[in-house]
């Protein structure tokens, strides 16, 4: 079956591919709504597989209702940054006017969020993930600003550096009740243990909501020669902390999803087995961030260790058995695409020659048995699965996966 034709069956019912004609009611949500689905049609149009008419229909769908730019209700996941990310990905002159307008609103939102973040730090308070993470926080807005950087004015480029400077400041240690904690320590309960003891907060390691998102962004900016004072030190500080919480052996390293206050105090994990190997949490996303850090810091040993950790993760049947769906977020498509990005920068060809063919087969078999996800969104839906498959077949460079912090366009 072609990548974008026909339909699969799941649980006895047909599951259509993301439609060319969007129905009314789609939201301006990058990961679950119209902008994310538009990315799939944009990729097809950019590579000549389809025309731009379908893209235009989805562009209208994502802007059918007022697009929020309120600081409390917009991030890379939704609102003005989400819509702007998709329109910028199109690279089409038809959207230049809309992007200029969105740039202005995103700049105002970003300045407001930066003021709040710096005020929080100065008050000695701990953050929550929404302040700094990829999905909802300033790292996600930084992703948009980084990839928009070549097409914006000096003021926007300055704003990008302000976001990076904030992330550098975020890595400075803090003292709470006599304990020295990393600056990204959240006051909230660990997300992977919501019914545990909420006291003391946690540090999140995941690429979607944790400190490896800022690490990847800092590294990508450095690869593009966009740096601020303390930039390299911040990358190194995060990497040392990740080294501290690396588990397993030198040949088979893995990382936890989060570290609790008790674990931090005892300097040991309460759990002793790796979790699901996914993009959002787990070894694959964390390994990609560390590979990018190694490349940014000219640290070939770190990059090689990250690649080794991913290779061993993919050879562990116990970890692979934890994957239960096809999605980008925590399924086979995300594992395939993350591995492909790591393999593209890897020092040897083991990932490309052995792991990628096996992952293609695993994804294909899952789709044959269970079909596509039952909805059309990017992160956990059919659009994301199809983008991973489509990208796997294309030789041309694309950066739609900047919204996953997997891309590396430093050579462009």
From TrEMBL:
Domain of life of the organism encoding this protein: Bacteria
Stored SMART domains: LANC_like (SM01260)
Basic and acidic residues bias (residue ranges): 1-10
One of the Pfam families matching this protein, by short name: LANC_like
SUPFAM superfamilies the UniProt entry points to: LanC-like
Protein name: Lanthionine synthetase C family protein
UniProt region (Disordered), positions on chain: 1-23
Native source organism of the sequence: Fodinicola feengrottensis
InterPro entries: LanC, LANC-like
Gene3D superfamilies: 1.50.10.20
């Amino acid at each position: 079956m072609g990548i974008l034709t026909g339909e699969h069956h799941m649980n006895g019912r047909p599951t259509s591919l993301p439609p060319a004609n969007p129905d009314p009611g789609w939201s301006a949500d990058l990961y679950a709504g119209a902008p994310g689905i538009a990315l799939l049609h944009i990729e097809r149009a950019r590579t000549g597989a389809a025309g731009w008419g379908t893209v235009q229909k989805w562009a209208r769908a994502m802007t059918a209702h007022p697009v929020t730019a309120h600081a409390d209700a917009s991030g890379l996941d939704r609102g003005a940054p989400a819509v702007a990310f998709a329109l910028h990905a199109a690279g089409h002159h038809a959207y230049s006017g809309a992007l200029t307008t969105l740039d202005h609103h995103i700049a105002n939102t970003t300045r407001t969020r930066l003021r709040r973040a710096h005020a929080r730090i100065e008050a000695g308070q701990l953050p929550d993930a929404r302040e700094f993470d990829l999905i909802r926080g300033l790292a996600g807005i930084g992703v948009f600003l980084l990839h928009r950087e070549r097409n914006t004015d000096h003021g926007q480029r300055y704003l990008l550096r302000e976001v990076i400077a904030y992330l550098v400041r975020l890595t400075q240690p803090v003292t709470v009740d006599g304990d020295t904690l990393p600056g990204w320590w959240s006051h909230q309960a660990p997300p992977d243990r919501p019914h545990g003891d909420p006291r003391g907060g946690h540090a999140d390691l995941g690429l979607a909501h944790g400190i490896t998102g800022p690490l990847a962004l800092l590294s990508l900016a450095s690869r593009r020669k966009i740096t601020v004072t303390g930039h390299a030190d911040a990358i190194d500080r995060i990497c040392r902390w990740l080294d501290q919480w690396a588990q397993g052996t030198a040949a088979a390293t893995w990382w936890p999803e989060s570290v609790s206050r008790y674990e931090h105090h005892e300097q040991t994990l309460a759990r002793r087995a790796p979790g699901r190997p996914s993009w959002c949490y787990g070894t694959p996303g964390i390994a990609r961030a560390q590979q990018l850090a190694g490349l940014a810091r000219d640290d070939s040993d770190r990059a090689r260790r990250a690649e080794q950790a991913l290779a061993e993760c993919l050879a562990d049947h116990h970890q692979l058995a934890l994957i239960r769906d096809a999605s980008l977020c925590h399924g086979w498509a995300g594992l395939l695409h993350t591995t492909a990005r790591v393999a593209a920068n890897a020092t040897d060809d083991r990932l490309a020659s052995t792991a990628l063919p096996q992952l293609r087969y695993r994804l294909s078999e899952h789709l044959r048995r269970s079909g596509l996800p039952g909805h059309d969104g990017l992160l956990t839906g059919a659009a994301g699965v199809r983008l991973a498959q489509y990208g796997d077949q294309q030789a041309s460079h694309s950066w739609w996966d900047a919204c996953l912090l997997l891309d590396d366009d430093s050579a462009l």
